[in-house]
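Per reviewer request, we include the raw input and output of the structure prediction for the construct analysed in the revised manuscript.
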Amino acid sequence: MFNSAWAENASFNFSVTPIADNVYSIVSPSFGLPTPENKGWNSNSHFVVTDKGVLLFDTGSSEIIGNEIKKAVKSVTDKPVRWVVNSHSHADHWLGNAGFINTGAEFIASERAVRVMKEDGMGPVDAFSRMTKGATGTTHVKYPTLLLYQGEKRNVGGLDVEFIFSNDGHSPGDVLMWLPKQKIIFGGDVLSSQWMPILTYHGNVPHLIETLYAVAKLNPEIVLTGHGQATSGKSIIRDADLIAGVWKLVKEGYEENKKPGEIMREVSNELGPTYRLLYNNFDSEIKRYVELMYKRQQ
């Protein structure tokens, strides 16, 4: 049995970073899977203070973390969290919803993402508890109930907000949030900063490439990601070009009956000089890219 008392007393440093007028980020210092060391806190949350309350984008991977995010928001404003947007169905971005159950907040996501959340059920809660040796504690599951649709526009507390779907680029039902007046994009795991874009077995690589180029055309001034520091629109173009370049080489190599190892060497030789210095994890991640994209050709 894991020590839940230790989990309840786990210390975090949920510092709030001002991004723009009334826009703030809570950036996790950890990248990767939940571990005992990061106590399950491995993803970012962002929030906007509106005239009528707080709009929160992603809530972390446990009820404990959700409560810490709630405290961090209160360090900036006395206004309540009235809207919670979950960018996608990966548990490190929405299990923290439990911390906002009794706040009267609306929980918002795409229909496809919610469907996957419900299919996963309590599985991620149990898995994260095992992976962190109990640091994520016991989490009540709170699913979003307000469903978004592609291109939907809303006025939230006097704030104009647009929602963009990635067409399952990173995972089924990804949603990005765009503030057109401030030219700020909230990308979840569709957008990346100092780390390589996160490709998944259930994502759609061509759709991800299309989404990245489409979002880049919005000319965002600030890009807020699911992991890593705030960045600019240049990062979106960088990511799109990288993924498109790898996809092209893998597709051509597969059609020429080349083995993954041979394609890997070509990718590293052709793209490494340009991209190796642009990411913290190019060499450790590029092999996985090639293997995943190779399987997509079969």
